[in-house]
Structure formats: C-alpha cells, structure tokens
Amino acid sequence: MLLTAAAGCAASPPGGPARPVQEVVADAALAACVASAAGLPDAGAAASDADLGAIEELHCDGQTSPLGPVRSLEGVERLTALSALDAPRNEISDLAPLAGLSRLGTLTLTDNEVADLSPLEGLPLSDLGLSQNPVGDLTPLTGTTTLTTLGVAAAKVTDVGPLAGADALRTLDLSGNAITDVSPLAGLPTLDTLRLADNAIADPAPLGSVPTLLVLDLFGNRITDVRGLAGAPLLQELLLGANPLTDLTPLLGVRSLVNLGLDETDPARLTGVEELRAAGVSVNGLA
User: CB of 44 within 8 A of CB of 22?
Assistant: First the structure.
C-alpha cells in the first residue's frame, strides 16, 4: 500500500474538533489509508477537519492492504482538497462520497464493483481509470471537456455515444467490451491512442478520419475490410491480429504507418504483406 502525505502532521491545526480517523471513515482499510496520508500513526489517532482537508492524494491498493479491500468510500468527502484517488483492486461500488470533491482530477478504480458513474458528473476529472468494473453505461460522462485519459476496458460497455463530445481525450482504452459502432469516436480532435481490442467491430472506417490518431488497436474484432483506414493521416501503429482479413493492400495508403501487428492471423490467406514490407512497414506477428 503506497500512501502519500500531502501535509502530514500529527498535531491538529484549528478548524474543527479532532476525532479519531476511524470515527470519520468507517471502512477500516480506507481509514488506515487516510490516517497515513495525514501523517498519523494509525486510524485511531485524532484528526481535525483541517488535517483531513489538507490531504491532496490518497492511495489505497486493495491487493496490498493488510486490512483487506476497501468496500465503502464514506468519509472521503471530508478530504476537500483531494486531487488524486488511487484505489485499485478493492470492492468499491458506491461513488456518491466523491460527488462534492471539486478538485478531483485523477481517479483510478480499476478492478472494483462500480456500475453507476452519475456521482462523477461535473467533476474536473482528467484521468479516469475504471477498467474491470461492471460500468456498462457511460452516459454520465456525456459532455466531459476535461478528460484526457480514460480506461474502461472489460467494463460491459456497448455504446460509446456519450464520448462523442469528449474533445480533450488523448488516450482511450475500450478493450474487452461489446462495442460494434465506433462512429461516435470519429470526431475526437485530439485522440492519439485508441485501444479497441476484443470487441465486435466489423466496420472500422469511421476511425480513419480521426485527425490525430497515432496508435490503433483493433485486435480480435470482426474486421474484413480495411479500406476505410486508408486515409488515416498520422497513424503509425495498427494492430489487426485475430480478424478475418484477407486483403491488406489498402493500408498502403496509410503513408505514416510504421508497425502493423497481425498476431493470430494465417499468413496464407493474406495479400499485401510483402507490398507493405517493401514500403517500409514492419509487419509483426505472422508465423
């Protein structure tokens, strides 16, 4: 468990009566993380509102916590200066205590039990990690203008429409979902890394118009036709393994292409491989 003290000092400054952290934060594992972040010896030590309000970063990895996984975030709303919360591999499901944290910019909750993102609406999040959660619905992220990095891999997502206006996104991981339609992502103006492995995409053509895309991972989809990617202006790395492809020659139109991954693909059924290599593309993964 890595714990960060933003302004650790055991003595309570003015600002409210000091109480044991474990009385303010009911979850024992979370209370231990909060106490350490405040520079206190344990969760039985007293902290004032000012002590808690000085914490800017909180790290609480359920895999390494001696007290087991965090199950509730109740009490974290008292950390009014919190800008980063890193709590992977826990059993958190309710994000309501985060709703009022107006400085929260980084939130990592990989491998938890989060399904409802509505408490995150309006928060100034720039980096959000929610992979391996049963999220499903991304609607609460509609209209986000601050997110630059979003990870929602293996999160039961089917509709990426709510991300259509996420104009600040640079890195997006949607691997391992059940996405079929990628057209809402076509207009993202700053997206440079997009991971869509292991979905159900048959038509990748809308992604050929993403103006800043450098890395595109489409491994393990249902793609048979790559002509729509031929106009990608900056694409450098393209992963297309485990797709029912036959003709790669349209990719000769991707002048910027450097690396093409074709893992789990039968080279005997492909045309265009040697032409791409002759054009300077590194073709990898073929037996």
Answer: yes
User: What is the average per-residue pLDDT within 116-121?
Assistant: 98
Per the CB < 8 A criterion, the answer to whether 146 and 103 are in contact is no
3-state class (DSSP) for residue 141: helix
The residues spanned by each domain of the chain are: 126-284
CATH of 126-284, one of 3.80.10.10, 2.60.410.10, 1.25.40.10, 3.30.70.20: 3.80.10.10
Query: Could you tell me whether strands 106-108 and 46-47 are parallel, antiparallel, or unpaired per DSSP bridges?
Result: unpaired
Cβ of 266: how many Cβ atoms within 10 Å?
Answer: 12
- Contact between 57 and 84 (Cβ < 8 Å): yes
Cα–Cα distance for residue pair 93/96, rounded to 1 Å? 9
Q: Is the pTM of this model over 0.70?
A: yes
List residues bridging with 57 in a β-sheet. Answer: 84
* pLDDT reading at 194 higher than 90: yes
Per DSSP (E only), the strands in the chain are 19-20, 46-47, 57-59, 84-86, 106-108, 127-129, 149-151, 171-173, 193-195, 215-217, 237-239, 259-261, 282-284
Band of pLDDT at residue 17, cut at 50, 70 and 90? confident
pLDDT at 62 over 90: yes
